[in-house]
Amino acid sequence: MKVVFGTFLLVVCWASLRAQTPTYVADIRPILTQHCAPCHHPGGIGPFSLLTYEDVAKRGKFVAKVTQRRYMPPFPADRQFQHYSNERGLSEREISTIQAWVQGGMIRGVGGEQGIGSRKQNTGESQVPDALKPELVLRMKPYAIKGDGREDFRYFHVPMNLKHDIWVEGIEFVPGNRKLLHHSRLMVDSTGTMAGIDGISEDDPSLRNFQQTPLADEFLYGWVPGNDRVTFPAGAAKLIRAGSDLILNVHYSPSAKADQDQSEVRFYFAKKPAERIVQTLTLTENNITNQPFKLPANTTPTFFMNYGPLPDTIQLLSVLPHMHRLGRSVRAFAITPDGDALNLIKIDDWDYNWQLTYFFQKPLILPKGSTIIAEAHYNNSDQNPLNPNHPAKTIGYGWNSTDEMMNLVFYYIK
Ligand code: HEC
């Protein structure tokens, strides 16, 4: 009797343990469908597919590690500090479910043979909802990427041939070469003097001259993998003047073999002139309070920014912090005239590869008289594995990826 009872207990315990151990089918697949599959499917921007049990189980420990560290899904901003409409991330519970699944031996569960969803469901990359057709599509000239195994930073001049001003409520960048195109930035020039920038490399000495040109819009749009079409809130749009041209700054990853890129920019026009013009506020070197912006070799400096008091009330739509490889962390607030602090962004572990435009859940009102303040930390030491220079050398402000920057870019309306 004793033995039978003991066995009974054992079976009960085992059964309840089993019940608590998550399975792929019941627990893991739904998490991955929502948070990983949009990028990790065949042909997607993720380096491998995570659609089937085998795909995931093969890398179970790796998946557990990158999710626990919140490296994946990529969203470097602190979501406790501020919430964004384009937020990505797993809940604590989802993270611990993945941990428990891996520790529990990665049980498949019943019915998992077919993996995640159908193909249709996994076209996370088709960036345009079918109903929307862009009014204007501009393509850069085809660019031949060298197969020399080096990073390549290029500037392209793209004529817009605009006879009239346009009101743009949505902008989208579609990389021609998804494998090698790492990120890009769109600028607007209205001086007509930038045609010579066509395809030049960032270390071309003439780039410095172009940098002196005052741009009509230093930051129309920035693209990194996973940053989809931006759409401004109803009634708000960017105004691009007739006669303007686009300047495209593109970073290509190193490639061992020659390849090609011809990327495209799509504009979605507002039906009528917008009531509110979306403007870009870019805080740059000039707004740094502890000048000069110099990072001596083997130091870990901090720089501070101050902008304001604002002459008018503005409504911030988004924030995009920008640094290069020596950046470690960044924080920004707005202080209202009443002394309230409005959280803008906090990134504790800066990742050069994931520079997103963070859209606030609703426009953030900064009353007249507010000040924007920011601080950014850098590590220009030999110990920083991301330092592009070994041995470390003194670095100043500049566009090149081997220079450094501290920028905050905001879309706003009045
Ligand atoms: C927005 C697109 C995107 C999403 C969403 C995404 N990934 Fe990734 N993932 C990438 C890209 C691109 C890389 C390669 C570049 C890198 O490592 O940053 C990557 C790399 C990885 C790696 C390898 C990391 C390394 O150090 O080599 C793992 C593991 C991974 N992802 C797992 C996941 C999991 C699990 C999820 C969901 C919880 C997820 N990813 C969500 C785009 C994405």
TrEMBL record:
<dbReference type="InterPro" id="IPR024548">
    <property type="entry name" value="Cu2_monoox_C"/>
</dbReference>
<dbReference type="GO" id="GO:0009055">
    <property type="term" value="F:electron transfer activity"/>
</dbReference>
<dbReference type="GO" id="GO:0016715">
    <property type="term" value="F:oxidoreductase activity, acting on paired donors, with incorporation or reduction of molecular oxygen, reduced ascorbate as one donor, and incorporation of one atom of oxygen"/>
</dbReference>
<keyword id="KW-0349">Heme</keyword>
<dbReference type="InterPro" id="IPR036909">
    <property type="entry name" value="Cyt_c-like_dom_sf"/>
</dbReference>
<dbReference type="InterPro" id="IPR014784">
    <property type="entry name" value="Cu2_ascorb_mOase-like_C"/>
</dbReference>
<dbReference type="GO" id="GO:0005507">
    <property type="term" value="F:copper ion binding"/>
</dbReference>
<dbReference type="InterPro" id="IPR036939">
    <property type="entry name" value="Cu2_ascorb_mOase_N_sf"/>
</dbReference>
<keyword id="KW-0408">Iron</keyword>
<dbReference type="InterPro" id="IPR009056">
    <property type="entry name" value="Cyt_c-like_dom"/>
</dbReference>
<keyword id="KW-0732">Signal</keyword>
<feature type="domain" description="Cytochrome c">
    <location>
        <begin position="23"/>
        <end position="106"/>
    </location>
</feature>
<keyword id="KW-1015">Disulfide bond</keyword>
<dbReference type="GO" id="GO:0020037">
    <property type="term" value="F:heme binding"/>
</dbReference>
<dbReference type="Pfam" id="PF03712">
    <property type="entry name" value="Cu2_monoox_C"/>
</dbReference>
<feature type="signal peptide">
    <location>
        <begin position="1"/>
        <end position="19"/>
    </location>
</feature>
<protein>
    <recommendedName>
        <fullName>Cytochrome c domain-containing protein</fullName>
    </recommendedName>
</protein>
<keyword id="KW-0479">Metal-binding</keyword>
<dbReference type="InterPro" id="IPR008977">
    <property type="entry name" value="PHM/PNGase_F_dom_sf"/>
</dbReference>
